[in-house]
Amino acid sequence: MTRVARSAPPPALAIRLGAATAASAGEFERALERPEAAQAERLAAVLRAARGSQQAGRVTGFERIRTARDFQDAIPLCTADQLEPDVERIAQGEPAVLTRESVLWFERSGGSSGACKRIPYTAQLLGEFQAALLPWLFDLARSRPRAWAGPGFWSVSPIAQDRDVTPGGIPIGSVGDSAYFPPRLAEQLATTFAVPGEVAHLPDVESCRYVMLRLLLERDNLAFVSAWNPSFMSLMMEDLERHAVRLLEDLERGTCRPPAGDGAERRGSAGGGGGAARDARVKAIVERIGFRARARRARALRTRWAREARLDARALWPELALISVWTDAQAQRALPAMRTRFPGVEIQGKGLLASEGVVSIPWFDAPAPVLAVRSHFMEFIDAERPDACPLLAHELEAEHSYEVVISTGSGLLRYRLGDQIRVVGHHMETPCIRFEGRADAVSDLVGEKLSASRVGAVLTRVTRERGEGSAPRFIMLAPEWGSPPAYHLWIECDAGDQGLECWAQKVEAGLLEGFSYRYARELGQLAAVRAFRVEAAERRYEARCVALGQRAGGVKPPDLDRRPGWKEWMLSPEMPAGNRQTPAAVARSTR
Length: 591
Hints:
21 helices
């Protein structure tokens, strides 16, 4: 008799999660069939939250706004910089500034002209996040139940970041990753976390990574990973091999001995500190966490390490079913390295989530992440007609690019997110999108969000502080891909080699004042700024711009050029002449 193979029953956690999130997922799926109506409901909720606030009081006829067109006519588009005065009032303790609701905490995010921006979180905003995250969890439980067969590694909150409090007593930073979920569901998820949220409060990236790895090595049944940039996971695996001997000793003994921080300094850590205070803080957190001894597993892994000189993720975690990370735009470049480190593990793109809100979520039945139409009210600026009235979700066309504008329950009204998306199709009646990159003048290789205005302010300050000799004839910062990527300072000046290095150090110090750049450096996702001397720099710059299609008369050297690939043009021994560069040279320089 032929035996029919039976698929394994779904894990108990997948069943429980499916039951807990089914109602929200059902509402989401119904909204996908009627995005116009779903978005009208979101606008009404956003308006209700803002009524009675200082913000609403500044808008003539706010109470009479009913439709999306009313909303667009009454309220101008805004940016984080324009919102900063209101955010500062909230931070000082003023009530009802953007909405009537109390602000629970601020999240940090990269600003355009300033070093950091603060995003207010209210109960309604959390509900809007949950209207997207719960359906995503349901879809995971339904479509990939094996991802819930064991513990998960959730790297959501920024690591090695102190929590702070504003003058008005509002926390900066959430209490943990589970804060984004309803309490009962958060309790369920917390029981599956392979790494507790307390690890994020260790004082430096080096100790955070070590403790994370030490905990993950205990879990041979790890089933799911949620991180942000793929490079985060690749760097974790590099650290695993760098500290393999020490980690395996700790695993065998049931101890945890994070290194003293020299690795963090070598990677260019901007913080974390050192000495007795740092060591005491690490010891206190490590003792609270507690660690298990896994002697047999340690011996088996040590044998493999001695034989192969590497610890493959498949050998470490054979049950790992899914990794959720960014996969669009610049994150694509980091995917091959992560795939090599995690062979055969399925990767799901996260969609587009920002500190301010959630734009799209992955959906297994859809061709790409679908708009989160039950979360915030969204508008879209047509990239080809930026001065036209922004379109609504149901008006988007396939194969067109748009800049995202969101309005949320935390009082962000018609807020330009600065992200550009492309519509690649529809699921039911709702657009499916891919993130293309920043729509504003921002360079964002790994999440550092360097804006032209920010870079300009740093270069101006450094030029003024340097003082000696004449001002540089040309100075420009540009990204360059590498392992890891970095920013190169192209400069034409009279300074010697030592002076050139001093320029790089000063610019690096200025950029490290920005939260997102500093965090990317602490994680090792970026190397430090390097300075290069250039002769006839403006001519070389113009030559490449012309070769790439710009009119020579319209070329203006910027403080920040977001295009990589300048080395071949700036350091070539041949002086560029007009636009005589070949197409092959252009192709090589833009790869």
